[in-house]
Amino acid sequence: MKLSACIASAALSALVMLGGSAAAFAQSDCKTLVKPSPFGPADEVGATNRVTPAVTKAAAAEIQTGKVTPMANNLIDGVPLFGTRFTKTILTSASLVPGAEYGKNKLSYMEDTYLSQSHVGTHIDGMGHIGIKDCYYNQTAMGKYVTQNGIKKLGLENLKSFATRGIIVDLVKVYQDAGKLKPNAACKTPCIDGGTVISQADIEAGLKLYNITLREADAVFLHTGWGDLFQQFPAQNATYNGSEPGLGKAAAEWLAGQKVILVGADNWAVEVIPSEDKEEAFPIHAILLTDNGIHIIENVRTDLIAAEAASSKRGTFFLSMTVPRAAGTTGTFVNLEAIQ
Amino acid sequence: MPAPRLGRRFVVGGLAAFLGNAPLPGIAQERRFRIAFANLNEEPAARLEGLGFTGLDVRRSFQLAARTLPVDMLYYDNGGDDAKALANVAAAIAEKADLVIEYNNGAAANAEIARRLKAAGIPALAINHPVPGAPLYGADNFGAGRIAGLALGQFAKQNWPDETVIAAIVGNLDDTGPAADRARGIAEGLRQELPDISLTRLDSGGNPLRIEGVLSKFLAAQSKRKVLVGALDDASALAAKTAIELARRLGDCIIVSQGVDRSIHGGAGDRKELDPSNRGSIVLGSVAYHMDRYGYDVLPLALKMLGGESVPPRTVTQHILITAKNIFSLYPPYDMN
C-alpha cells in the first residue's frame, strides 16, 4: 500500500474509532423501526412517566409490617460478567500512613476509585441502552446524540421516580406446582433450566398464586431460580452466562400492554437465552426498552422476596429504588429493596 | 410412508405454525406429537462428521427448537453403536412415538431400523445417513467444500492478482467419508476460479495439532508464494492459523474453514474467531454446517410429515460462507449484559 493510501486509511479508521462523529453513523428512518412514545415526541423519560403521585400513594399502602427485604446482589469482584467487562475497586488510603494525617487533630481519610462498566451486577437498563440500528426509544435517531463521553439524549438523568408497587412472580413455584420444573444440575436450589421460555400463562399463574391483578405503573420481578448460579460466583459463572430461562416475546408484549414500568429478573438479560428465534438478538430488550420505554433490571436477587412472599402470602411490596442521575449514561448499578 | 390420521384443523393450523416459527396456542391445545430423536453419539469427546460439533450440540438444538412447537420430545443416544441404535428404536416404538428422527451411521442397522418402524407404522426421518424409505436431511459436504474453494480463489484474484498463488487443503485426509467430499469440493471450487493452481494436501491424521508441523514445513518450502488454505474443519483452521503466525507468514496466507462451530462463532463466550472488529484476520471465513441448529430445520420437516404433507426425499443444509461481515447477523452474540 502506498504511503498516501496508508494515511487515508489510518484517518478513516481514527474517524470510525472516535465514534463521536455523527458522520460515522448512518441515519435510519426511525419512524419505521421504533414505536413512538405515548408521552409525546419530546419524551426522553419512558415508563416512569406513569409513576404519578397517586401511584406512589397507592403503593405506600403496601407497607404494612415495615419488613425490608433486600433485592440486590453485592457489588464485588468475581461476579458473572462477559468477556472483557470488568469491575474493580481501588482504595486510596495514603493518609493512614503515620505522618500523613491532616492537621493537628490527625484526621485521616479513605476513598475509592471505582473502575467499572455500568451494566454489571444488579443494574438498570436505561433508554439509551438498546436500539434497532441507530433508532432508540421514541424514534430517536441516536447517531447525532452520541459522544465519546456519553449520550446527549435519553440518559439516566431524565428518569422519574420508581416509588411504586413491586410484584414478585415466583415462577419456580409455578413450575413446581405444574409439575414441569426441569432444573439445571448446577443449581443448589430449585431453578428453571436455561433456555426455558416464560410465557404469559406462566406469569398469570404466578400472579394468581397471591391473587394479584397487575395495574399501571407496577414494577414486575420474575423469580426463575437462575440467580442461584450468580450466588455461587465464580464457580458457575460460565453456566450462568451460557443461557438462562426468561421472558418470551409474547409474554413481553403482554407485560408491555399492562403498562408496567420495569421488568426485573434474577438472570442477566431478563429474556430467554437462546432466543426463540435463533437469528434474533435480544428481542425482548427491544420490545421493552426501545418500543415501550420499560426498564429492565438484571441480576436482581429475587430469592429472598420470593421466600418472604411464600411465607406471608403477599407478593406485592413498596419498591424502594433510586437511580443515580448519571447524565448521559445508558445504565447503572442500583440497590433495591422490597418493603412490606 | 404412512401419515397419521389427523383432523383438517391440525393440518391447516400446523402448517401455519411451522411456516411462521411462532407460538402455537391453538395447535398446542389440540394435538401434541411425540417425536423421538435418536442421536448419533453424545459422548462429550466425540466430534460428529469430522467437524467440531458434539452430539450434545445437536441434541440441544432440538431442545431449543422444540420450545415453540407442539411436540414432546423423546431423546435417545445411539452412542455410535448400531446395537444401541436398534435398542433405541425398539424403545421409541414401545413409547408409541409418532415419528422417529434417526441419526445413525450404520447402513445395516439403518435398514433394520427402517423395517421395524415400517412394521410399527411409525414414519422416520433420517439425518446425514440414509434410512431406507425415509426422507433424508443433511449436509452437502461437496457443495460446502466448493463454497470454500470459490471463496479462496476469489480472494486470490482480488488481492493477489500478480502473485504466484498456491493452495493447500489441511485436515484429516484419511477420512473417506464427509471430509473427503469436502476436500474434493474445495479443489473443485479452487480450480473453477484458478484453473492452473497447484494444490497440496496436508494430512493431520485426525489430530489438528499435527497441522502445525506439516504446514510449517510446507510454508518454509514456499517462501515466495501466497498460500490459500482450505481447512476441513475449524480445529484444523485454527491450528493452521497458529502455524502461519509462528512462521511469520500472516501476509502471505488466507484460510477458509468448514463447520462454524463454537470456536468460530463464540456462542456465549467472548472468544470469537470471526468478529466484525477483526476483519484483518487471516481466517477469511468458515462454511456453516449448522449442526448446532439441526433441530430448527428438522423438526419443521417432521411436523410436515405428521401433517400429511409430502417432504422432499432429500433436504440439504443451507451452507453459507460465514465471515466477519455477516457473523453477527447470522450468529447473534449472547454476550451483552
Keywords, please?
heterodimer; A: 340 residues; alpha/beta; 9-stranded mixed β-sheet; two-stranded antiparallel ribbon; 9 helices; disordered N terminus; B: 337 residues; 6-stranded parallel β-sheet; 6-stranded mixed β-sheet; 12 helices; 12 strands; 42% helix
| C-alpha geometry of chain A | globular
Determine the fraction of residues in helical runs of chain B and give it as a percent range: 40-55%
The ordered string of helix (H) and strand (E) elements of chain A is HHEEEEEEEEEHEHEHHEHEHEHEEE
Overall residue-averaged pLDDT value of chain A: 92
Query: Going across the major beta sheet of chain B, what is the strand order?
Result: 2-1-3-4-5-11
How many distinct helices of chain B? 12
Secondary structural class of chain B = alpha/beta
Cα gyration radius of chain A (Å) = 22 Å
With strands numbered from the N-terminus, the spatial order across the biggest sheet of chain A is: 1-17-15-9-11-13-14-4-16
The ordered H/E elements of chain B are: HHEHEHEHEEHEHEHEHEHEHEEH
